[in-house]
Amino acid sequence: MMSKPHSVWVSRPLFPEVLASLAGYVNVHAETGEGKRTPGQLRDKLADVDGAIIGLGDRIDAEVLAGNRRLRAIANLGVGHNNLDLPALTAARILATNTPDVLTQTTADYAWALMLAAARRVGSAERWLRAGHWHGGMRFDDWLGVDIHGKTLGILGMGRIGQAVARRAVGFDMSVIYHNRSRLPAAIERECGAAWVEKSELLRRADHLVLVLPYSAQSHHAIGAAELAQMKATAVLLNIARGGIVDDAALAEALREGRLAAAGLDVFEGEPALHPALRELENVVLSPHIASASAETRRAMARLAADNLLAALGYGPRAGDPPSLLNPEARGGR
Ligand code: 8YV
After folding, report:
1. Which of these, 68, 86, 134, 292, is most buried using a 10 Å CB contact count?
2. pLDDT, averaged across the chain
3. Could you tell me the pTM of the whole model?
4. What residue stretches are annotated with the D-isomer specific 2-hydroxyacid dehydrogenase NAD-binding domain (predicted)?
5. One of 70, 253, 271, 331 is an active-site residue; which one?
6. 315 plus 202 within the same structural domain
């Protein structure tokens, strides 16, 4: 095989057809296993490549980029990009991209999967059944969950995914309230059937509260002990955003003491580690950061990341114009 002018590193296993399409343009070094890398290891991996497709566990910052003169593009496999230090990438004139839009609907579906599972105790009931506990009859007043239909859905963070979560509430006859730093235009609010409220009102009124805000220093522990204390004891909390937005220790405490009915969590502070108290609780549904993991969507994310990377390196139909560029000010190359 002829060597090509550009080389890229892919930090995790990707769909073979996506790797093959990349390999049509550039030399591809793809990892075959998952794993967290230290800044030093990332620096080494990025030292001799022109671009990389990386995941949320790979933090790219000034330390990792120090001394690198070759790297021109980083394609993040995810819409959230708190693992990228954009100012550092821009200062080094490295283009950075993410994967918006393609995962919006699938991730919104998953918010509902968690909501339904947490409110109706699906995980706990299944564990009980698998453990062989269903002998004879069952009490009529056992396994009582909380209703979803007719209740108030709260959404914290009303970007594309938050809006898609809201639109799905119509079929459940819910009232939808949201809080976002900026209020949506009235036409979009109408289309989503959602009304803006202050955060404290959202916490007080929501029966089911979905968190879909990006992670930043400002959103760190946006839901902590003080916020949990404002919520109804019958409420259900769903986090499909990022670990660190919820104070997991405070949440576990609230769930254990019955100050909150249930929670559904796809993301965790310090994941892949879980707060040990969460593991012990029956009223929480836990999943390993899979909200975007449908066959269709993960393929679309991988394809978009590859398209972004190729375009950033000057290949393909969008050469020079990556579809989801995060730092246009870095254009112009190194
Ligand atoms: C992850 C996500 O990218 O898009 C995001 O921000 O959190 C997810 O879609 C996915 O789990 C791969 O790590």
Report:
1. 292
2. 96
3. 0.96
4. 113-291
5. 271
6. no
